[in-house]
Amino acid sequence: MEESEDCSYNKRIVDYMFNDFKGRRAALLKALTTDLEQFLKQCRDHGDKKTLMLYGYPDEQWELRPLPADINAPALGLHFCTDMLEEKDWLSHFAIHCDAWLDYIAFYFGGTYGFEEAERNALDHMMIDVPDIYKVVTGTDSQDEDEEEDEVEEHLCSILGECSIADPSKCSSCSSSSSTRN
Q1: CB 51 within 8 A of CB 87
Q2: 37 Cβ partners below 8 Å, 6+ apart?
Q3: pLDDT tens digits for 70-109?
Q4: Cα–Cα distance between 107 and 123 in angstroms, integer?
Q5: What's the rounded Cα separation, in Å, for the pair 151 and 170?
Q6: pTM: predicted TM-score of the whole model, two decimal places
Q7: 3-state class of 63 per DSSP?
Q8: CA 38 from chain center: how many Å?
Q9: Which of 27, 38, 123, 135 makes the best surface tag, with the fewest CB within 10 Å?
């Protein structure tokens, strides 16, 4: 059976935004991995450290620049907590901010293009399939993440009263509540 080409959303613009997202992500990853020494040197050499941000472009290039006034990006500046954290910990912390910035930029421009719910959901699902910068930079094991997701889902089960886990028999909240119901 052939997949229908009739989409409930504008596939072309969603693909465009996803490619923009991937290019910006690649730029940030490049700065935090292969160009790390150059990135850190520029961070140390820059004068106004509190308002400096790492900016990723869709063409996979990056630069350090002041926080833009026209975009309220979720950023604290590159040197937030640098005095208190070791470089590895700071890099992990900063990678989380890069992930937040990428999400913000993708949906900011999605709003600019007038994305409806279907476009936002499609873009979100495409972005979820790409590993977070944090996971790449830190080498976080995906098995640990799956266990954390199960714990969150189990907590939601206990709050909502219904199971969201694929196999409810593995959910401690549901299995304990089902035994009390019988």
Answers
A1: no
A2: none
A3: 655 544 556 555 556 677 887 888 888 889 889 988 988 8
A4: 9
A5: 11
A6: 0.67
A7: strand
A8: 24
A9: 38
